[in-house]
Amino acid sequence: MEKVILIKYGELSTKKGNRNYFIHTLYKNIQNKLRDYDVKIHQDRARMYIEFLEKDLDSIISIINCIFGIHTYHIATIVDTDDKKIQSTLLDVVSKEKFSTFKIETKRSDKSFPIHSQEYNSVLGGLLLKNIPHISVDVHQPDLWIKVEIREKESFIYYKTFQGCGGYPVGTQSRAMLMLSGGIDSPVAGYLAMKRGIVLDAIYFEALPHTSMEARNKVIQLSKKLSRYSDSIHLHIVNFTPIQEAIYKNCREDYCITIMRRMMIRIAERIAKSHGALAIVNGESIGQVASQTITSMAVINQVTNMPIIRPVACFDKLEIMDIARRIDTYNISIIPFEDCCTVFVPRHPVINPKLETAIEEENTFDFEPMIEEASQSFTTIVVTDEDANEFFDLL
Ligand code: ATP
Ligand code: MG
Description:
Layout: E1 2-8, H1 19-33, E2 40-43, E3 47-51, H2 57-64, E4 70-80, H3 83-95, E5 101-108, H4 117-131, E6 136-137, E7 144-150, E8 154-158, E9 162-166, E10 175-179, H5 185-195, E11 199-206, H6 213-227, E12 233-239, H7 241-250, H8 256-274, E13 277-281, H9 294-301, E14 308-309, H10 317-326, H11 330-333, H12 340-343, H13 355-362, H14 367-376, E15 378-383, H15 391-394
Parallel strand pairs: 5-6, 5-7, 10-11, 10-13, 11-12, 13-14
Antiparallel strand pairs: 1-3, 1-4, 2-3, 4-8, 4-9, 7-8, 12-15
Helix pairs in contact: 3-4, 7-8, 8-9, 8-14
The protein binds adenosine-5'-triphosphate (ATP) and magnesium ion.
The site of magnesium ion (MG) has 4 residues, from loops.
């Protein structure tokens, strides 16, 4: 029996004007992610379906589960549109299931099929009742809700619904620059941004030798995990050491974090612009630490006109951790290698910084050439989802 993966668009179908563009982007994304498999992808306005080789089902499902824009999907059995064949296939498929109540819902998109939907429900229902013992019909809460879609040449039979990861297809929004540290929050922020269709580049500020190559490796592995949701991620690694050292040498200790963040945003903005990214994304969450009060955010934000998107701004830490576990970044994030913020944490960072003081303090050294240098000379690694599960072998 031949099976297909039947994909429903869900939220996409409400995007009237952009509908075709959304569907086309989803199609391209699926095609790209399944490029190594022997599949045929068909699309129409209401659904997409994928023909595949049985042996690849599990791997294909794990890929499908990371493609945004897929709301729900079904594994459907495909059968020639012929009454006898539909009946025997239905009986075959359903006999393998354990259930006591069922409902049949026929949809006839091919109106030339001679039996009307209602009538066909009774025909197929009668067939099951006659051949499978101890079952009955329940139209309200059936154990098995069997859908039969009659189409012109081939029809679908299915009864299990799987949840896809929802959202919009990556690429339906512009590019943005994710500030990716090795922590728990920023990978989750990146995931949520991609879920809205944003294409991500990532930027990591590194302060060797105060931070280690292991910390960098962590960020690479986090990018790998994130790239399962998109094509590939360009990870830009910026040498932040001279700026970080200058800040700690010249500025008031309690303002160091505020100023460090202002420098990071300035660099992120420049690299974003040179890479066609229109926004910055970060993992700040309101109230989580001193640098994440609204006052701090306002002072930090003041260095750029670029939108800064903070997908986890209003989430509790526990909610963020839940998502991190779900997307498999949590176990990497909690490995204890210091990033550049944790190395230089002041004893009492200012909670409500003043803009004038921040400006005064950062002007104690000539930061502009340093910012320019950092924005020009950085390393870019193209990270793909190949070997996304390999991290722990490296340690
Ligand atoms: P995370 O868990 O993402 O590290 P956090 O709670 O530790 O976040 P902070 O260290 O205050 O928060 O950083 C706030 C945000 O600033 C991070 O979520 C990230 O987006 C960005 N950021 C911090 N440090 C770096 C870094 N070294 N490189 C890139 N971005 C960074
Ligand atoms: Mg951090």
